Amino acid sequence: MKMLRMLVRSIRDAFKSVKRNFSLSLASISCITITLIIIATAVIASFNVQNFTREIEKDLTIVVFLNNNVSEEDIENVTNEIKSIKNVDTYTFQSKVQVKEQMQAESDVFNAVLDTWDTDESPLKDTFQVKVKNVEEIKDTADKIKSFNEVSVVRYGEGMVDKLISAFSSIEKITYAVVLALVLVTVFLIVNTIKLTIDARKKEISIMRLVGASNITIKTPFVIEGMILGILGSIVPVIFTTYGYIAFYQHFDGHLFSDLIKLIEPEPFIYNASVIVIAIGILVGMVGSAGAVKKYLKV
Amino acid sequence: MDLIRLKNVEKKYKNGVQAIYDLSLAIEKGAFVFVIGGSGSGKSTLIKMLYREEKPTKGQIIVGGLDVAKLRNKKVYKLRRKLGIVFQDYRLLEKQTVFENVAFALEVLGAPKDEIREKVLKALEDVGLKNKIHNYPDQLSGGEQQRVAIARAIVNDPKLLLCDEPTGNLDPEKSMEIMQVLDNINKSRGTTIIMATHDKDIVNQMKKQVITLKDGHLVNFRQKGTYYNENA
Lengths: 299, 232
Fold this sequence. Notes:
The structure holds two protein chains of two kinds.
Chain A: H1 2-20, H2 22-59, E1 62-66, H3 72-84, E2 88-94, H4 96-106, H5 108-114, E3 127-132, H6 138-146, E4 151-155, H7 160-199, H8 202-210, H9 215-251, E5 255-256, E6 261-262, H10 266-294
Antiparallel strand pairs in A: 1-3, 1-4, 2-3, 5-6
Chain B: E1 2-12, E2 18-28, E3 32-36, H1 43-50, E4 58-63, E5 66-67, H2 76-80, E6 83-87, H3 98-107, H4 113-126, H5 142-154, E7 160-164, H6 172-188, E8 192-197, H7 200-206, E9 209-214, E10 217-222
Parallel strand pairs in B: 3-8, 3-9, 6-7, 7-8
Antiparallel strand pairs in B: 1-2, 1-4, 4-5, 9-10
Helix pairs in contact in B: 3-4, 3-5, 4-5, 5-6
């Protein structure tokens, strides 16, 4: 009961002081707004990079061609050996007969040409299609499979894939770092802006201390105030990113530069992004306020 | 019974100035004590140590059973709730009314609304300001503002009221009014009052206990003291 009463009072005081110190509140809000727009852009960019990295990675397959003269037993051996490799996620076996059927179904030319061979003299090979868990280790896995006696050739789009993967992983790391740095800068800016507002209320805090308010009682209204500032500051960024992204998506028709780089569908993605932006706004406002008020809580 | 006990207390500030030397004394519950001495005698330091604004460098200070010297910053509020403090410069919130200023002390403790209203009105009655509860501090005279500050200090019914030069900004007539208010609080509520001052007229007229400090040393502690009477 007492806790509830104090919480209600804290919320009331927080709203009061946002209103009473309006010009300073406005300064904090615009500071949060501007940095949140940048953060939101970075967040959306990083999600999209992650998304198309994953899309491309999903398509990456190691194709294993076995020697021409392998027996049933050999195929079973290879199956077991592939199974035993840790990085292997799934694999499918296609016998030369199946490969032939598939190719014949794909094109009339293949159909005509392949029809001239019967199964025994077919130049096609039995194949495995292997998907890996960690694409960054695809080269090692391919090499391992290559070393089996029954295997003749291994293909996974070497060269191009290697470069693409390392580029994606650095882009991902960079976007993380940018988002983190922006959040830190925002916290710093907001701590300083809120410090200004709190400096004007030093006397209030010192009187609170004198009459026996515990630190948490003093802090709570300020932290709630920071939360309010964070929510108010994230309104514009949320609108901006929501409509901005929808417009962007429609303008580029869902993919950038080539069909390979697909953008994330706006729904429900923008709602999640908005929630993240608001959460960052609230968090940053709260941390900023708590950090700013801390200075005055010591004796 | 003693409300306050000091044992071999020393205070040396970080800049090297020693404010208090080996001070030991005890103050009874319900007493009215003046702390007198010139500038730099250590009287303000003594008051500040009692409400734990400053920590003694050595020795023990017990206030109402709390070991003040050992109290951690986080726990200081526990001490502050047991005492009221009045300063020379009133320290009121200008944007709040008289009522709100006094109620503030109870709100931060989470008291219910009805209780706050009742206690605030009682405290304002005790200092003679019941008719000005809706005024703002800048609409009051200095003496009235100080009485609001006193009301805020006693609204929580503390055992101890500390006053650091409460009449320092007031003319002799208003000062005596404040002293009447304090004397009444001491008598009717039984609140122990410790007041630092350098106003000799007040000390001589009130005839209360007097602690005299000089350059950080205790000169004497008399039952019914006067200001300048070193031989008594």
